[in-house]
Amino acid sequence: MAALMDTRILLRKIKDLRCLTPRRNRVKAKWAGSQPKYPATNLALQNFDATYSLQLGEQWPSVRVSMLCEQKYGALVNNFATTEGVIADLQSQGCRDFVCQPVGVGALERLQAPGFPLHDNPSTLESVGVSQHVAPPRLRTNIKCFVFPGGDISRFKPSRPDLYGMLGYYLMDAASVLPALALDVQEGHSVLDVCAAPGGKTLALLQTQAIRFLCVNDISVSRTYRLQRVLNSYVPKELLTEERMRITSFDGRKWGEIERDTFDRVLVDVPCTTDRHSAMEDENNIFKRARTKERQRLPQLQTELLLAGIEAVRPGGQVLYSTCSLSQLQNEYVVERAMHLAREEHGISLQVVDLRPITRLFKDTFHFAPDPHLGQLVLPHLTANFGPIYMCKLQRLN
Ligand SMILES: C[S@@+](CC[C@H](N)C(=O)[O-])C[C@H]1O[C@@H](n2cnc3c(N)ncnc32)[C@H](O)[C@@H]1O
Questions:
Q1: Residue 269 C-alpha to ligand 1 middle, in angstroms?
Q2: Which residues line ligand 1 (CB under 6 A)?
């Protein structure tokens, strides 16, 4: 009986103490000097195991292992720098430009890839044992991105500035170049990049050297500064003038109110669960308990951003939606919902553009998900550890 009384008194004392301590401090005290009980990376992996094992079936274990291994990079060549030495140096290290030389088994088959602007490459197909009179296809673009072949570890030296201070290449997940390639920017186009910072895809778009006017936007002012610094290191001042480029920090969801029916091409590379980062890094991880609501709201935010992009593009123009997540909720579901809202609320009809010519062309560099229901998805794979990157392209019909 005495023991029971002691316990009761003790419990009351603890309760009193808790009432005196603000909740925030209690949480702090609980974590003070220790690691969180559930690190965000563990929470991310638990979430991924539950959802992606259903979504990807027997492919999930392989994708999971790859996401936990070293990610591969590509070197996006900066056409605004003096590139000869840079390209020779990359080639001497055994890298190849995956855009210009998509060689490998199946190159002949890709010659027949319909519906995409391919043109002949004067180089030969000897390396894959195809007659040297047959030229491999390549995209009509100036974008060049070098990757190390096969299982090599992708280690690039830091890029050095040329005589004019322009850096020779920008390192990024090579799969992140695909949305810029798929957007298919043509000579004289005006382009909007709705969520642009820190600027990898903006740089890739600029490498086309075809854009008449580029508007780069990101809601985060600090990230927009970072983007500005990237541009200053890679693009000559003459091209960063107000007539050719505008850098803004608007909420992209409002773009339909700011500027409608305007751009030839719009890139909507939305904030997402950044799956590889979430599985690997606790810092700035969206699976932290404190960010649960933010994470749950992502599909809604993504839908609103895509819808704004659809409103901003001109009739006949094209919008590319991309994420670096495997989640169907953030990928296909968002595209379907935005298409529905565009039709119901704005009377805008859209057509999904077939990206299979792109996937056929680059199937030796990237591992694409088989038979996607809508859009294309790069799956991380131990032999091609890029991505994940999801992309879906929409053409506005009216
Ligand atoms: C995936 S990142 C973009 C990466 C960038 N496209 C690149 O290739 O370097 C998503 C970006 O969306 C921005 N963002 C988040 N909400 C936004 C909003 N409502 N409007 C515009 N940008 C937003 C974030 O600040 C973040 O920089």
A1: 7
A2: 176, 194-201, 217-220, 223, 251-253, 269, 271, 305
Confirm or deny that 201 is annotated as ligand binding. yes
Mean pLDDT of 145-159: 78
Q: Whose CA is nearest to atom 17 of ligand 1?
A: 219
Residue 373 has pLDDT above 80, yes or no: yes
Q: What pLDDT score was predicted for residue 107?
A: 41
Output the CA 262–ligand 1 centroid distance in Å.
Answer: 21
pLDDT score for 101: 76
- 147 with 72: CB under 8 angstroms? yes
Domain parsing of the chain, residue ranges: 175-396
Q: Which of 105-119, 156-170, 180-194 has the lowest mean pLDDT?
A: 105-119
Test site for ligand 1: of 218, 258, 259, most ligand atoms within 8 A of the Cβ = 218
Confirm if 81 and 167 have CB atoms less than 8 A apart: yes
Contact 367, 65 (CB under 8 A): no
Read off the pLDDT of residues 248-304 as tens digits, 9 standing for 90 and up: 999 999 999 889 999 999 999 999 999 999 999 999 999 999 999 999 999 999 999
What number does the ligand 1 atom closest to the CA of 227 have? 9
**DSSP one-letter string for 359-380:** HHHTTTTS-BPSS-SSSEEEPP
Span 175-396 CATH architecture: 3-Layer(aba) Sandwich (3.40)
User: For residues 59 and 66, what is the distance between their CA atoms, to the nearest angstrom?
Assistant: 11
Class of residue 43 by CB neighbours under 10 A (exposed 0-12, middle 13-18, buried 19+): buried
Q: Is 218 annotated among the ligand-binding residues?
A: yes
Note the pLDDT tens digit of each residue in 72-98: 899 999 999 998 889 999 999 889 999
How many other CB atoms are found less than 10 A from the CB of residue 62? Answer: 15
pTM listed for this prediction: 0.86
Mutate to test the pocket of ligand 1, among 176, 192, 219 (most ligand atoms within 8 A of CB): 219
